[in-house]
Amino acid sequence: MRLEIYQIVVPIISAIFIWGLASRFRRSRASMQEVVVGSLFWLAVAVFALFPDFFSRKIARLFGIKSNINAIIFFCLGLIFFFQYKLFFMIKKQQMALTNLTRKIALEQQPDKEVEA
Amino acid sequence: MIPAKDIAVMIPAYNEGPMIGEVVTHVRTCGYKNIIVVDDGSRDNTRKQALDAGARVISHPINRGAGAASQTGLHYARQQGFPYVIQLDADGQHHPEDMETLIAKMAEGRWDIVIGSRFIQMSEGIPQRRIAYNRVSNLLTNWFCRGSYSDSQSGFRMLNRRAIEKLNLGLDGFGYCSEMIVVGERIGLSIGEAAIKVSYTEYSMSKGQDLHMGITTAVNLIWKLIFHQTH
């Protein structure tokens, strides 16, 4: 099997991203969900790059894609979905941090009072 | 029986200036002095009204939602060492006299959380829209639960020390009502229900959730329960 340059570069880039995700997980900077979804995405990219013809034919048959334009549209929809998931996850984390901060400030400003009998 | 001094009555409030003073006063006349209002970043005079009526007020500097306010109240109760917390709504729909019903149920010693249910003995005057919304919410909540609950969205609840210590909720919005039940079950808390009455007024109907908020609440709850650790 003769490999094109992109078939070597893309899997290497995917591997770097997966390694980065695992590294973030080890340092408790990413959740298991992020690692699993992110790794699946980059694994799919790597496999697609290694066997482009096989997957192109399979995907084209599955989705009824008849031209390259269709393929690009489907690919972009996939990307949008992935980034939507990432954004939603990031926003949730930010909101949680904001709530915790708000709570901390509220509780620190509250002077302890004697419980009334 | 559980003495009133062991109970913190916690009232999350957002822009409840017109009603909060009356609610706090009503609770005080029922004999409960430990009243904590969690002012969730209100833009009106909620804080002043609650203070004037004799409540302690914890103020969120910005609005974070009913769930966030409720969790702040539980944090405070935990810090202060209250053995029990009763939570009720700030819009006046709940009858503070019904706290006795929740306390009697809690005193049985079998429950860590007692939910005040509007639907065990169907309270009169509940709008059909609210009934329909609650049925959908119950279906969703009960789907994640072992038990079956008749009023998963009730904001009238009593928690014992074990529940106060163990519950750690993450939803900021109204989804916390369901989250408390689902998470409570998962961490081994026993949850019971007691019949309460409610009075819906034009004011209380203007509060609560609309369709958009209801859908957002459901999405957030499903997201939380499926993708996140719940304790």
Features:
A: 117 residues, mainly alpha, B: 43% helix, globular
Q: Report the sheet with the most strands of chain A, covering strand number, pairing sense and barrel closure.
A: none
The geometry of chain B reads as: globular
Helix % of chain A is over 70%
**What is the name of the CATH superfamily of chain B?**
Spore Coat Polysaccharide Biosynthesis Protein SpsA, Chain A
The tally of helices of chain B reads: 9
Query: What is the distance, rounded to the nearest whole angstrom, between the alpha carbons of the first and last residues of chain A?
Result: 83 Å
As a percent range, the share of strand residues of chain B is 15-25%
Side by side, the strands of the main sheet of chain B go: 3-2-1-4-6-5-7
Which class best fits the helix and strand makeup of chain A? mainly alpha
Largest sheet of chain B: 7 strands, mixed
Question: Largest interface, with Cβ-Cβ < 8 Å?
Answer: A-B, 19 and 26 residues
**Helix amount of chain B:** 40-55%
Work out the count of structural domains of chain A.
1
Per DSSP, the total helix count of chain A is: 4
- Please indicate the count of domains of chain B: 1
β-strand percent of chain A reads: under 5%
Low-pLDDT ranges of chain A: none
Low-pLDDT parts of chain B are: none
Radius of gyration of chain A: 23 Å
Please characterize this protein's 3D structure.
The complex is a heterodimer of chains A (117) and B (231). Chain A has 117 residues and is mainly α. Chain A is built from four helices and no strands. The mean pLDDT of chain A is 82. Chain B is an alpha/beta fold and 231 residues long. Helices cover 43% and strands 16% of the residues of chain B. Chain B is built from nine helices and seven strands, in the order βαβαβαβαβαβααβαα. Chain B has helices at 17-29, 46-52, 66-80, 99-107, 128-143, 161-166, 176-186, 202-206, 211-227; strands at residues 7-13, 35-40, 56-60, 84-87, 113-117, 157-160, 191-195. The longest helix of chain B has 17 residues, at 211-227. The interface between A and B is medium-sized, with 19 and 26 residues.
